[in-house]
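Course exercise 7: structure representation. Students receive a sequence record and must write out the corresponding structure in token form. The form below is the worked example handed out in class, using Ras homolog family member T1a (730 residues). Read each field label carefully; the graders check that inputs and outputs are placed in the correct fields and that the protein name is recorded exactly as given.

STUDENT ID: A-19
EXERCISE PROTEIN: Ras homolog family member T1a
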Amino acid sequence: MQSIFFCFSCFCTAKVGKTSLIMSLVSEEFPDEVPLRAEEITIPADVTPERVPTHIVDYSANMAVSPQANVICIVYSVNNKKSIEKVSTYINVCCSCRVPLILVGNKSDLVEHSSMETILPIMNQYQDIETCVECSAKNLKNISELFYYAQKAVLHPTGPLYCPEEKEMKSSCIKALTRIFKVSDLDNDGILNDNELNFFQRTCFNTPLAPQALEDVKNVVRRNMTDGVKDNGLTLKGFLFLHTLFIQRGRHETTWTVLRRFGYDDDLELTQEYLFPLIKIPPDCTTELNHNAYLFLQSVFDKHDKDRDCALSPEEVKDLFKVFPYMPWGPDVNNTVCTNDQGWITYQGYLSQWTLTTYLDVQRSLEYLGYLGYSIIYEQESQAAAITVTRNKRIDLQKKQTQRSVFRCNILGARGSGKSGFLQAFLGRNLQRQRKIREDHKSFYAISTTYVYGQEKYLLLHEVMPDFDFLSEADLACDVVCLVYDVNNPSSFEYCARVYKQYFIDSKTPCMLIAAKSDLHEVRQQYSLSPLEFCRKHKFHPPQPFTCNTTDAPNKDIYTRLTTMAMYPVALTSSSFLHIWGVCVFVCMLMCVHTHFCVSLRSHTRLRCMCACNRCTYCLCQKILKLELLRSIKAQLHRVVFNRLLGWVEGVGSHLLAEEESSLMQQVTAVSNVEESIYMEASAEQLMASDRHMAQADLKNSTFWLRASVGATVFAVLGFAMYRALLKQR
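STUDENT ANSWER:
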């Protein structure tokens, strides 16, 4: 609350002293001259105990009360019977404002008796009356208490908490405190032990309770009820009794401090600010749970998995969601995530459902985390601390790597093509288990984990309704597209082809074609191109056969492939393959030159041409190696190879990076080794005797490279023919 407006009103006989009360509060002495009406007074926040700025307005009977008023003080004179008798009449006027009322009996210094016996029946008649205070502006009796109670009536009203007639807390207050108890019961044993009580105390009041203070609290409960303390811990009944006691003794602020710390407003409803904290999500970004959020959800699961079977039974699910005002999960959830043989949600399925909710509707996920008390237990400012907003997908494509852990795959296909079966197979359900699913319990989503190069990732499958005329942006927004057709239906593939050509032919989203129901007889599709020819034309993988009509759980390799495509959508293009193949061919050519150079070296030694014949293979190789063109080609080769390594292999992942880099580096190293070997052998020929031959190990190494490349064989034959021709000329 930003500020409080106090309205001091007199609706009855004049001269009851309301203006004198205001003047005495401000000046701390009784004024000699009292004006007819005091000006509006503002008390700064640092002066009041609750650190709230306070505005005091002096009203009379002929003035309308401001709608900004937070509390109204109705002043009467205790020595004037007419003033007391008319209090009820004017209370009815103020009740329409729906704000707390304070009855103020002024001029208590003029009488020796109290007016409380007369006022008490009136207080019991009206629920809006918070309290009654008798005071004296002349001798400053209860002046500070008057404003304290007025401020307290605004910040800590009794009405929403307690029913004076029945002398017990209201149902809304009991419901709120019950949720607070269950959130604070970290082990879900129905008892707040000393550690949990200290955590509760520290959370609400920023200070723990001393051991003796804890015992005193429990002793108070023991003296008043038999089942308030169990196993030296506070039960729910004992917890509610303590707050009832606080309210009855006028310590409403204690209960209100607890309620507001756990997100409740003056109407005992969780505030919008608590349930839906502000979180900014830029376009093309997704939302995921971070590590702390998963740890919290894991603790919640362990807290309610009482039989320790790593699955939540229907009773355990209900117990988990008792802190919610409604049941958030319907029967479709059991067909969205993994379950055990009994149909109960497993631990993995439980986390998957939270991941799904966070990805599709982050505001709802924030709301759910608020009900569970994430920000309270993990001492965070809000539930927004549990959410990770991923970077823009375009940046991932540019850098060819991603840090996301959730990937979405939209499933498109004609009716009856097998989309639902493909979703359920991802959850490990074969056709026999799928037939047991009720029609009203089916889900259009399925989510589970896959492993890509040892990394756990979530794959979210979404079945898109087959409406070709209109596909929304949500139907098109995904990381990978799965086009499903029935191999046994001749008209099934046409829908996939039309959808691809209409929406995805110019898209960067990778696509995969699924040949569903592959256990049935495959028929010719009524389309100009067969599925295989269609895939070849548009340069993506051939149709992947799939069936869920199996004895055991269907194979999940295809889902791992989909996740990999979603993680690394930029595959190798044809030009990339040509560049790499060109590098390999060039290396093979040099290997052949090296091999024939070694053979020619021995011949050259026997002929004693001393590097001047210009006709043998040795001399020709020497000239080639000295060409500037060859050196520039070598430099460009190094640059091209390393650019490919940095630009392409980086996006393939750490696993492929090591493998491809090692292979290409070996090829580049081989090029350098060839040149170095040729230069070393040439130098050795000029310095050593002419009868020296090439080492046998070097010859074997050259033979190894010759056998290692298929392309090198062709160039070896050509080189050998050139060598024979040169010998004949010689």
